[in-house]
């Protein structure tokens, strides 16, 4: 198994301790994943993304999408087929599955659509106003503003 030393990152960065566990989990689960169902991840705009999973044979009622603690989980559970069939060859994977995707901070699920056997989950990065960059005018310190307000009231 590949080992990654992240100690140089920790020496000069604060708050990235979660990254180490994400990398470790990704390397560990890479071998455990069998590749079903196949999926694509695409950037559809500056702050928009889409995950498309090939879920042929699944109906909406057999699919479940959940987001919890920065993890998107997609599950598919096939209903029991009570009809007895005799297959000569069975190549269509009608098995249950679970796919997990780690989401960065401020990534929100915008919606999901099932069309032609493809489940598309729309994601958007919504940065709160408090975290967006803002310009600070020179000479606009809080003490200066308070002093200016007091001077205006006295006059």
Short key terms for the protein model shown above:
elongated; Immunoglobulin-like; 155 residues; 2 domains
Structure in words:
The structure is a single chain. With 155 residues, the protein is of the alpha+beta class. It has two domains: 1-32, no CATH class; 35-129, Immunoglobulin-like, CATH 2.60.40. Helix content is 23%, strand content 30%. The protein has helices at 7-12, 17-32, 142-154; strands spanning 39-43, 48-54, 63-68, 71-76, 97-102, 107-115, 118-125. The strands form two sheets. The chain has a four-stranded antiparallel β-sheet, with no helix packed on it. It has a three-stranded antiparallel β-sheet with strand order 3-4-5, with no helix packed on it. The protein is elongated and about 80 Å long.
Give a brief description:
The chain has helices at 7-12, 17-32, 142-154, and strands at 39-43, 48-54, 63-68, 71-76, 97-102, 107-115, 118-125. The chain folds into two domains: 1-32, no CATH class; 35-129, Immunoglobulin-like (Sandwich). It has three helices and seven strands.
Report the structural category: alpha+beta
Order of helices and strands: HHEEEEEEEH
Q: How are the strands ordered across the major sheet?
A: 1-2-7-6
The CATH class of the largest domain is identified as Mainly Beta
- The average pLDDT is 80
Number of helices: 3
The termini sit apart by: 74 Å
CATH fold name of the largest domain: Immunoglobulin-like
Number of domains: 2
> Helical amount among residues, as a percent range?
10-25%
Major sheet: size, sense and barrel closure?
4 strands, antiparallel
Radius of gyration of CA atoms, rounded to a whole number:
25 Å
Strand segment tally: 7
CATH architectural designation of the largest domain: Sandwich
% residues in beta strands = 25-35%
Shape: elongated
Uncertain stretches of 5 or more adjacent residues? 143-148
